[in-house]
Amino acid sequence: MASQSRNQKVAPLRSPCLTIAESADDFASLCEQVNQAIEPAGVIERMYAEDVIALTWEILRWRRSKAGIINGAFLAALQGLLEQLLNRRDFDPAFDHEEAAEELARGWFANQRAKSQVATLLRKFGLDEGAIEAEAIRSRAEDLERLDRMLALAELRRSKALHCLADYRQSQADRKKLSTDQILENDEVPRLVAVGKRPD
Amino acid sequence: MASNRQIAANRRNARGSTGPRSTAGKKRSGQNAFRHGLTTPLASAEFARAVETLARHIAGDRADNIALELAHDVAEAELELARVRRVRTALIERMTAFGRFDVPKLFQSPKDEAAWILQRYWGATLSKGRPKFAGDPLPAMPAQEPARTAEAVRRMLPDLLKLNRYESRAVTRRDRAIRAITLRSKTS
């Protein structure tokens, strides 16, 4: 098996799987970091190193998506919460109440006045802005649970790839040791002859 | 044991459920097991060449047939794994671009479509009135990144979980073959 020079840049076995929105530079930097840490030698070690890279990238992708899913649910969560906090009886006709909640929720993202108005309303019921995040997470609980499952799987596979790499390296080391042991066993050790008892 | 009456009833019932009879029905049921096409092994000459090249690279100076066969298994599983990852990225990109995999229906029902065609090309109207257009039940995709990709991922989570299974299978196959290679080199 051809061994890889430690200082050389490792050429990838497979082409990187990036989406249009993902940065090729970030991926290249991840590859460099992982290859520096693992220092793969030979094609099988490179396979495991690339697995670690792909899975680390995947974990980052799912983490970003998780944050994005929660952020994406914020507006609807805040609107729902405000509909609960604003008193329906204060509005005439009643559906103005929903409109006011929507307007205030949109305003929360854009201006400070709406933000402090929401904070006051929340405080009135003993709540804070954490209640908005909690509602956003609650509303996307099913998706987040699936995403967590994928994250857990990717983390498990990454650990497994590292474990397999360690096993493979150990077996290679054992093989080398065995072959050197055999050389030593086969070699005839020169016998020392005691001084003064020279054979005739 | 089933009585003669039961056997006769079973046969009668079976005759009534022997699958689709129309060409369209047969075509549709033929696609029942198809999801991503990832269970089908790639049979192209290009894939075979790639497997061969990688297998030789893995086998290195081991020239015996068993070592080559094992290296072949590793290469095939490794390329399958790369394929699953490519498919996943392509699906995420498609979902990010369109927000869905299917084409949304334009009309609520085939009758509405027929009514629209009659009205548009012959100026005739059906008694049921104006044709009803189908509204899109999915909300619009966010315009900006990273919210757009996050929404795409959210919409295709069931598909992503299915792809995970294919990925696991390829990884298991590859690792098993690698273990066999190392075990063989230990004993030989």
Short description:
The complex is a heterodimer of chains A (200) and B (188). Chain A is mostly helical and 200 residues long. Helix content of chain A is 70%, strand content 0%.
Keywords:
heterodimer; A: 200 residues; mainly alpha; 2 domains; 7 helices; 0% strand; disordered N terminus; B: 188 residues; 65% helix
List the helices and strands and how they pair.
The complex is a heterodimer of chains A (200) and B (188).
Chain A: H1 24-38, H2 43-72, H3 74-85, H4 96-110, H5 112-124, H6 130-139, H7 141-186
Chain B: H1 4-16, H2 23-30, H3 45-59, H4 65-98, H5 110-122, H6 147-155, H7 157-187
How would you describe the overall organization of this protein?
The complex is a heterodimer of chains A (200) and B (188). Chain A is mostly helical and 200 residues long. Chain A has 2 domains: 24-71 and 143-173, no CATH class; 74-139, no CATH class. In chain A, 70% of the residues lie in helices and 0% in strands. Chain A has helices at 24-38, 43-72, 74-85, 96-110, 112-124, 130-139, 141-186. The two termini of chain A are 53 Å apart. Chain B is an all-alpha fold and 188 residues long. In chain B, 65% of the residues lie in helices and 0% in strands. Chain B starts with a helix and ends with a helix. Chain A binds chain B through residues 1-2, 13-15, 17-21, 42-44, 47, 51, 54, 61-62, 64-69, 71-72, 140, 143, 146-147, 149-150, 153, 157, 160, 164, 167-168, 171-172, 174-175, 178, and chain B through 54, 57-58, 60-61, 74, 78, 82, 85-86, 88-89, 92-93, 96, 142, 145-151, 153-154, 157-158, 160-161, 164, 167-168, 171, 174-175, 178-179, 181-183, 185-186.
